[in-house]
Design brief:
It is a single chain. By secondary structure, the protein is an all-alpha fold. It has 5 helices and no strands. It is globular, with a radius of gyration of 16 Å. It starts with a helix and ends with a helix.
Length: 125
C-alpha cells in the first residue's frame, strides 16, 4: 500500500519513472564503487569514498524526485500529461552521462566519440 501511495504521489509507476529510478540507483552505485574500489572519485582529493559526499549525492537524488513532483503538479495544473515525463527523460539523460563517466573512471574502455562528448560537456560546465 505504501509503495502504491508513493508511486501515485509521483504520478504513477510507468516506464519513465521506473527508468529514472533505475538510472538514479545505477549512478549512485557506480559512483560509490568508483570511490570505494577504484579510489578514483573526482569529489575527493584522494579519490576514496567519503560518506559526506555519498550523503550529498543522495540528497541530490531526493531533490531530483522533488522536480518530478513539480512536473506532476504542473501536468495537473495545465491539464496535460507530458511535463512529468519530460522531467523524467531529462533527468535520465543526466544520470546516464554520469553513469558513463563513472564507467570510464572505473577503467572500462569507452568509444572515443563518447569520451569527446563528455569532455565537451565538462568544458561547458
Amino acid at each position: 500500500m505504501v509503495g502504491g501511495a508513493v508511486a501515485a504521489f509521483f504520478g504513477g509507476w510507468d516506464a519513465a519513472f521506473g527508468a529514472l529510478l533505475t538510472c538514479m540507483g545505477v549512478d549512485f552505485l557506480s559512483g560509490s564503487l568508483v570511490a570505494l574500489v577504484f579510489h578514483k572519485s573526482k569529489k575527493t582529493g584522494s579519490g576514496a569514498y567519503n560518506s559526506a559526499y555519498g550523503l550529498k549525492g543522495l540528497c541530490r537524488k531526493g531533490l531530483m524526485l522533488l522536480l518530478v513532483l513539480v512536473g506532476v503538479q504542473t501536468d495537473a495544473l495545465l491539464g496535460v500529461d507530458y511535463t512529468r515525463n519530460a522531467v523524467c527523460l531529462g533527468l535520465c539523460a543526466n544520470e546516464i552521462l554520469s553513469i558513463v563517466e563513472n564507467l570510464g573512471l572505473a577503467g572500462i574502455p569507452m568509444p572515443r566519440a563518447i569520451v569527446r562528448a563528455l569532455e565537451q560537456l565538462q568544458e561547458k560546465e
